[in-house]
Amino acid sequence: xxxxxxxxxxxxxxxxxxxxxxxxxxxxxxxxxxxxxxxxxxxxxxxxxxxxxxxxxxxxxxxxxxxxxxxxxxxxxxxxxxxxxxxxxxxxxxxxxxxxxxxxxxxxxxxxxxxxxxxxxxxxxxxxxxxxxxxxxxxxxxxx
Length: 144
Description:
144 residues, alpha/beta, 4-stranded mixed β-sheet, 4-stranded antiparallel β-sheet, 2 helices
């Protein structure tokens, strides 16, 4: 008799405290070597939620409200990948794995010129006095 009485009460409390968030987990690997990638940024577009992969290539995003999301993985030297319409259900785990492809990173051209005129060197040193204390650093600066 007591069991029949407690069952509806337990059911009411369990429905009352049911979660409305889920979680997203996954693993990130290199497409060519199959090695795991650590430090990859995973972001849910339109939110401030995200994560970074650990040394095993795994990531975890907790307390994600139940909805559909676009998940983007980005890493320097690799193409960014977006997975659209990823559905997160309450009290469930959504698994999204990424296989990333290598991409060439192009930078701007840097021109370094040596200072050969003593007058210009003194003027340049005077202008930057206090900004940089080590004169060896001047060699690495662009002089116009």
